[in-house]
Amino acid sequence: MSETLVLESAELGATAADWVALLKPRVMTLVVYSGAIGLVVAPVHMNPILAVTAIICVAVGAGAAGAINMWYDRDIDAVMRRTASRPVAAGRIEPASALGFGVVLGIASVLLMAVVANGVAAGILALSIAFYVFIYTMWLKRLTPQNIVIGGAAGAFPPLIGWAAATGSIAMLPALMFAIIFFWTPPHFWSLSLYASEDYKRAGVPMLPVVKGARHTRVAVFVYTLILLLVSLVPYWLGLAGRIYGGSALLLGGAFVYYAWGVLQDRQDRLGNSLSKDMPARGAFKYSLLYLFLLFGALAIDRLA
Amino acid sequence: MKPPAPRIERENWSPEMVAEFKRRQRGRNWALLAVLAGFCIIIYAVAVVKLHEYGQMW
């Protein structure tokens, strides 16, 4: 698209799809899924209407955090190829409008959660939004290559929220689900950052491949995947999940380690940069999404069976 | 006498741009209507469930 057309497009205002994009719908999918699994595996039955509304609150809260993230990161989004077409970075939505949209939706989602479920679920939802906005987006993302490791906690809250919505408390199983997403996030994002490191470098974001190099990142992906495999087996070892989950965690985790091994062994130059256009890292990134989907699915089936 | 409707589009816009501007505006309005309708349905359904739970209905 030519520059003139882009400018004209921005001048004509946002489409409804732009406002939806502001909520990061792809991230929202994962949040909704993991939150719903947290709710389903909880030992307390929740009225279906309240359960669906609670999940909508989680989705809207995550979307609100995404909108505020796009408001704050509009400068670096604009210089990264992957994010340049985002509605605020591309100028189709005013930054102040995005911020207002995010703040209003965030507050509304927390208040509605308190009415629909309970104060514990609403409190964790508020904490997750605040963690993503203040700790990850505003503090860690531009400061340290460990941004993803610590900031990953923000994306790990939904199973806790789902469980808390049903039970009004927190227990070991949702805490372990939190830990699984927490240790899943680094290999997931670092696989992506291996083949998007030029983007991050241009934007000045200190992602691990930019600061420590590709070779270090490959080792980190492999180590974190091994830790993830061990953590994912803990629910089975503690008797919180049965053989369906235990077997699935072993198989799926083993496959993830295989992909991470491929990332580690990728043909590379002296600095560790890929000579295969990062095909193994692309594969690991795609598999990581499938991994989490199937692992949590297996947990739900195991608990319901 | 009825005052003329305010013109939001710019003077230098072509007819195609005006049409596109109005199409986007219409799309946003419909989306907002859907969101508000959905919100009303949620609040209504939650209210019915909560009242039922506390034994104040039916």
Commentary on this structure:
The complex is a heterodimer of chains A (305) and B (58). By secondary structure, chain A is mostly helical. Helix content of chain A is 76%, strand content 0%. Mean pLDDT of chain A is 92; it is low at 1-7. Chain B has 58 residues and is an all-alpha fold. Helix content of chain B is 67%, strand content 0%. Chain B has one helix at residues 15-53. Chain B is elongated and about 65 Å long. The termini of chain B are far apart. Chain A binds chain B through residues 8, 11-17, 19-20, 47, 49-50, 53, 56, 112, 115-116, and chain B through 10, 17, 20-21, 24-25, 27-28, 30-31, 42, 45-46, 49-50, 53.
Write the layout of secondary structure elements.
The complex is a heterodimer of chains A (305) and B (58).
Chain A: H1 3-11, H2 16-21, H3 25-40, H4 48-72, H5 74-79, H6 95-116, H7 119-140, H8 147-156, H9 158-167, H10 172-195, H11 197-203, H12 208-211, H13 214-237, H14 243-264, H15 279-304
Helix pairs in contact in A: 3-4, 3-9, 3-15, 4-6, 4-7, 4-9, 6-7, 7-8, 7-9, 8-10, 9-10, 10-13, 10-15, 13-14, 14-15
Chain B: H1 15-53
Oligomer: heterodimer
> Which series of helices and strands of chain B comes N to C?
H
Q: What is the distance, rounded to the nearest whole angstrom, between the alpha carbons of the first and last residues of chain B?
A: 54 Å
Principal-axis shape of chain A equals flat
Please outline the major beta sheet of chain B.
Answer: none
Task: List the total number of helices of chain B.
Answer: 1
Broad structural category of chain A: mainly alpha
Q: Quickly give the structural class of chain B.
A: mainly alpha
Using the CA coordinates, give the radius of gyration of chain B: 21 Å
- Residues in helix, % of chain B: 55-70%
- The proportion of residues in beta strands of chain B is under 5%
List the uncertain runs of chain B: none
* pLDDT averaged over residues of chain B: 84
Alpha plus pi helix count of chain A: 15
